[in-house]
Amino acid sequence: ESFFFLVKYALLQKRLSQLEEAEGGFDQFTRSYKTFGVQRQPDNSLLFKEWAPAAEALFLTGDFNEWNKFSHPYTKKEYGKWELILPPKHDKSPAVDHRTKLKVVVHTAEGDRLYRISPWAKYVTREEKSVIYDWVHWDPPEQYTQIHPRPKKPTSLRIYEAHVGIASPEGKVASYDNFTTNVLPRIKELGYNCIQLMAIMEHAYYASFGYQITSFFAASSRYGTPEELKRLIDVAHSMGIMVLLDVVHSHASKNTEDGLNRFDGSDSCFFHSPPRGEHSLWDSRLFNYSSWEVLRFLLSNLRWWMEEYRFDGFRFDGVTSMLYHHHGIGTGFSGDYSEYFGLQVDEDSLVYLMLANHILHFLYPDCITVAEDVSGMPALCRRVEEGGLGFDYRLAMAIPDKWIQILKEFKDEDWDMGNIVFTLTNRRYGEKCIAYAESHDQALVGDKTLAFWLMDKEMYSNMSSLIPMSPVIDRGIQLHKMIRLLTHGLGGEGYLNFIGNEFGHPEWLDFPREGNNQSYHYARRQFNLVDMDHLRYRQLYAFDRDMNWTEDKYGWLAAPPAFVSAKHEGDKVVVFDRANVLFIFNFHPTQSFQGYRVGVEVPGKYKIKLDSDETLYGGHGRLDHNTEFFTEEQPYNGRSYSMLVNIPPRFTFIPREAGVWDPVGW
């Protein structure tokens, strides 16, 4: 295996030296968005440049020439490049006005005439009655200037995964401005220090959740303008919050008129020819990562989002599909090393990901990259110099699957504590994981949020705090908190929550489409539920907030993995310590424990810091927070000291060592 890592690094070095030789280094190469597409020159002339190797001829048409298809031909250059210069108008203004439409006309060898959007288009819009997106020239007289510096990379990453379009209670596509004004302050209050923004890269089909990209350089116009997105990121930075882009470089939409597919009339261009260039499950096109111009396009795309919008990094979607020729289809991964080394590994995309991570981390030392990989590829999150792929974090995708499985298949008394702990702690040493109880995947139609798995239809009638809790609501509210805290404390080096799930959002997610009469009913987040004093959603929201701020204070995500001193099957108790904080969970539905002995490593006096049974969080208030716990010199469960605690049923709390920290509560 070590030979495999050396070979990977050698391939990366070879690519970098080729870039140095042919392009004068990766800095220039990855700024190709400054030379391709349309560029305004200092004299206000416009330079148009495209790569269309299979085309016979290229023309530019649009509002500027009254849609004349032949008056403005591109000139053919070497390596499949085409260029056109439009001199300024008589009044010295650019020949193409801001917000006017353009198209590239492609003539093929077969004699076809195709109408295309530039792959480098920075803004595309769709008129209400239309199906196809239009390329719109974006060159505003007043551009938004970002003034707030990027936040430093946090040691503990707490991610709020969000989708701009669903981020309001109203039945419509919500805007960038709505997110800036109404959602950013909530994220700040909740204690998240990073936002992962989905569905920003332009996608013609809203219900694809942003994963079928049509224009890679265009921020989606359905939420507003590029300037409004820049403002959103700037305001997030002013709050000390990083913003990651959910980047989709694993595949592209099959759309031809407003996508990349068959841009030059051929079935290849940016992609492999079929069958290699098609994903059978996603019905989409697959990039040819060995192509010089595809590397130019994708690496420049990453730089564009970092430079133009000042994103702070990326969550790379579909990494498993990229890493293997089989794309993970019909393949289970057991963790056996033979699954990760061999002919099934796609060397070209492996080198592309190494290149992307190397360049991003070299140019932006605080940049964060996260990989969505279900396979468990070794060294995914090790530095490229070590033969790794260079990601900072991987998503711990087995954890949410485990929680859904438990809630679907097991009675409370049959929960397997050892299996839960194993799933939460089973990760490669030295590779950072982001743990989460649920993400957007678990909320999609066909599944539902954890809160809805727990409480289902009772959420419609029994969430009022003015009436006593029904058994279903009581169980749901307690487990919702406990599942989150256990995942937060034990599951990784980062934590992720999907928008709305922090307060137990009911139901599921479903975008407007033919199958639901174009309804927005399930494509929104009902923040109004949190703002109503008498509903219990507030209690879950408060717990999520205090859980994050408790982590902020003690830093368990940045600490080495926890030491689990108890996972008792009969008692349904889990005890572990991490970052000098002791976590105690009792998952038993009915059994409370008096004088329960728990092991601790640090001697001294302990007090309660976070208590899921507090009435503020919808608990029963069974613990006295003035109680002090004193350790005894009695080793227990592999810890040097121990102490006795009382634990109510189905509840969790964190005592903390008073000799180490100031005893400030909330």
Description:
With 666 residues, the chain is α/β, with parallel strands linked by helices. Among the domains are: 1-30 and 287-395, TIM Barrel (Alpha-Beta Barrel), CATH 3.20.20; 560-654, Golgi alpha-mannosidase II (Immunoglobulin-like), CATH 2.60.40.1180. 24% of the residues lie in helices and 21% in strands. The strands form seven sheets. Strands 10-11-14-17-18-19-20-21 form an eight-stranded parallel barrel, surrounded by four helices. A six-stranded antiparallel beta sheet has the order 22-23-24-29-26-27. Strands 3, 6, 7, 8 and 9 form a five-stranded antiparallel beta sheet that branches. Strand 6 (101-108) and strand 7 (113-116) form a beta hairpin. This is 1,4-alpha-glucan branching enzyme. The active site is at 317 (nucleophile), 372 (proton donor). Its EC number is 2.4.1.18.
Short description:
This protein is of the alpha/beta class and 666 residues long. It is 24% helix and 21% strand.
